[in-house]
């Protein structure tokens, strides 16, 4: 199963565009910060992750407030067929 749930803010966002097939899509960068417990020790976790929202969810993502906290759900996939870089594909999100 490839499912990711993440509380993050929208750090950057591209302009809504359309794929050659006519599907609306918008990319961006999410920023996460939290304290996680690993091996009974607290660990500060801070990272940025590239993200993309396609289809119906893209309009909501394009209009979401930058810097506000949201709970995102989706999956990870390669940026392209030959890339090793991962992108978080947003399926849904709501206020955190």
Automatic annotation (TrEMBL):
InterPro entries per record: NA-bd_OB-fold (IPR012340), Prisomal_replication_PriB (IPR023646)
Entry keyword set: DNA replication, DNA-binding, Primosome
Domain of life: Bacteria
Residues making up the signal peptide according to the UniProt record: none
Keyword DNA-binding assigned: yes
Coiled-coil stretches: none
Assembly and binders: Homodimer. Interacts with PriA and DnaT. Component of the replication restart primosome. Primosome assembly occurs via a 'hand-off' mechanism. PriA binds to replication forks, subsequently PriB then DnaT bind; DnaT then displaces ssDNA to generate the helicase loading substrate.
Record function comment: Involved in the restart of stalled replication forks, which reloads the replicative helicase on sites other than the origin of replication; the PriA-PriB pathway is the major replication restart pathway. During primosome assembly it facilitates complex formation between PriA and DnaT on DNA; stabilizes PriA on DNA. Stimulates the DNA unwinding activity of PriA helicase.
Family that this chain belongs to: Belongs to the PriB family.
The protein's name in its UniProt record: Replication restart protein PriB
Gene, per the UniProt record: priB
């Amino acid at each position: 199963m490839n499912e990711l749930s993440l509380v993050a803010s929208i750090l950057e966002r591209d302009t809504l565009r359309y794929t050659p097939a006519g599907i609306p899509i918008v990319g961006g960068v999410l920023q996460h910060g939290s304290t996680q417990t690993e091996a009974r020790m607290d660990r500060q976790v801070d990272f940025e992750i590239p993200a993309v929202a396609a289809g119906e969810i893209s309009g909501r993502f394009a209009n979401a407030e930058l810097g506000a906290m949201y709970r995102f759900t989706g999956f990870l996939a390669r940026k392209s067929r030959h890339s090793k870089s991962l992108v978080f594909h947003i399926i849904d999100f709501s206020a955190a």
